[in-house]
Amino acid sequence: MKRILFALTIAFCIAGILGGDAAARRKSRDHATFISIREIRDLEQKGLLVPAGKDAWKTKSGLLIAGRDPDGRTRLDHIMRHASDIPGRPKHGVFSVTKAGVIDLMDEAWKKIKAGAVPEKERGGKIAYTVGMGRPIGYLGGRKGRERGNPKLASVRLVIKKGTTAVVTFFPM
To answer: Is the pTM of the predicted complex or chain greater than 0.85?
Structure first.
């Protein structure tokens, strides 16, 4: 009887550890850093980003990437989440360009928007633009992407705060 209780106790402990590890892995991946200080400095040296305060940068076209998202990530880190796949997410647009390429794409999309060629959707003080880039710029990741063979994506979604150039998010779709 002692052996059975001991075996059950060990089994429950192992199950708890493994279950906890999976949750911890999910949580750490969800709160991971997607762009390093070194990578940010490299983007600044290339002239793609100009520091505009604490956790704030401006792009060449004047977009402001500042503040934090609801999960506490900087806006830049939030955007760079889309520079790599997160397989556990239900649906995830992933850029197939470098991080410097993401900033260039954002500026390219903004120029198309400013030219008046892109319709807007306003909701809750934010304006969303879906911009066709005319070429593949990413792929559908996450679980749905995997199920569908990670199809290529040729559009981006840029969301800004109404009346400003402050970026809320930017991702392939």
So the answer is: no
- How far apart (Å, rounded) are the C-alpha atoms in residues 84 and 140? 11
Helix (H, G, I), strand (E, B) or coil at 19: helix
- Cα angle 42, 44, 45; round to 5: 65
Q: What are phi and psi of 171, to 5 degrees?
A: -160, 160
Q: Which residue has the tokens 């559009």?
A: 155
The pLDDT score that the predictor gives to residue 29 is 44
Tell me the one-letter amino acid at 105.
Answer: L
Taking the C-alpha atoms of residue 102 and residue 15, their distance in angstroms, rounded to an integer, is 41
**CA 169/CA 26 separation, integer angstroms:** 22
Three-state DSSP at 74 gives strand
* Per-residue pLDDT tens digits for 49-68: 999 999 999 999 999 999 99
Phi-psi region of 90 (alpha: psi -120 to 50; beta: other; left: phi over 0): alpha
